[in-house]
């Protein structure tokens, strides 16, 4: 690092941060760009919602699994080689996803993309803490966060345009040019391994337990939707996940070279920031998954129009993040985080009023309010978490706080998808129970049969098609009500996260 700073002079800080941001944008863009393509992917492969959610969550789960490897990889191979290898893996995953012949290969490609994103994202934060003085880290983190969060925010917009014009496979190739640019810049500006003698040992057992826990948990959540939550398979998968998670924590406490040191969470400021990050990850990725799905399946938007819904919010974050970075340098972390959580909760609470007639700009403004809140909170969340740690733990802390946010995203998308399906079934059953014997229902059926009779259809066909039409109307209404319930769940989660924010406000020893 010192040699590169001497070679490039004062601009080096900006150059190396830009190099890290380009790779981050390329990899994180893929987290949400596929959301607007899910209906097309489901139709192409003939799969249901339970399989489709894995396409979204496989990426986030892989990010979560490899993010904690960042500290060991950088210590062993240096920033330059770690960064280059991650981007090569991302390019390979993009090609595999775009050319996938079935959903299994597509999910494998998404895992490769996510694994590379998990290695790249914490690296940028480490670079900022190494090259910027303490009083400027919040501002630098705010600018870097533009790439981290603007990419998934704008992903659906770009994805919608590409799906409508070039087909769903093309969305997986969008990040390749940026990844290639990041690869070149990284080879030039990223530092190599430091010559510090002995290298940290790889925590193989810890990594294996973490992968088993994540794989079993996500598989169990997906299986539960298909086979029932009390089935033997689901019970076994979730039990394996719980056992592996407990084993992971116990092993990390025992080993002298932990991948994730649980003692980090004994530091109150860090633990509270990580808890808020968990909720924010669930809220951000969950709402970015739900909003395009709602407007396409309930309101009949095209992928382009669904993606454009998030464009105003993404542009607003460009303006908010630099301001929020400066606030992170001047205000106690709990204040911007608390304001951000409140705005995010307000945003998702407003979405509980969504229906088939909600105007485009009304929905877009609701989303914008939440993204402003996220933009205000994220720099303080990251800087506050790392500021609370001693210098020797900053590397692991960077991976851990990002781990919390990505884990929240992976679990949040899964749980919200499950809640959406279950509430759709609940409302459909409730609505169906109210239809029998109603005069309005009989009137609708008679009118539909009359219109079909004018087309020359026989009586049996008219009755069957009228009943099918009624079923579609009921299902559409049930789906709308279920989306409202899921948005309410996100709002309540954000309000619950104000508890660790209140704990952050307390002075040490108070």
UniProtKB/TrEMBL annotation:
It is found in: Cell membrane. The keyword Transmembrane helix applies. SUPFAM superfamilies: MFS general substrate transporter. The chain crosses the membrane at residues 12-34, 54-74, 81-101, 141-162, 168-190, 202-222, 234-253, 265-286, 306-327, 334-352, 358-377, 486-504. GO terms for cellular component: plasma membrane. Residues 16-509 form the Major facilitator superfamily (MFS) profile domain. Keywords: Cell membrane, Membrane, Transmembrane, Transmembrane helix, Transport. It is a multi-pass membrane protein. It comes from the Bacteria. InterPro entries: EmrB-like, MFS, MFS_dom, MFS_trans_sf, Sugar_transporter_CS. Pfam families: MFS_1. GO terms for molecular function: transmembrane transporter activity. The keyword Protein biosynthesis does not apply. PANTHER family: MAJOR FACILITATOR SUPERFAMILY MULTIDRUG TRANSPORTER MFSC (PTHR42718). Belongs to the major facilitator superfamily. EmrB family. This is DHA2 family efflux MFS transporter permease subunit. It comes from Neoroseomonas oryzicola.
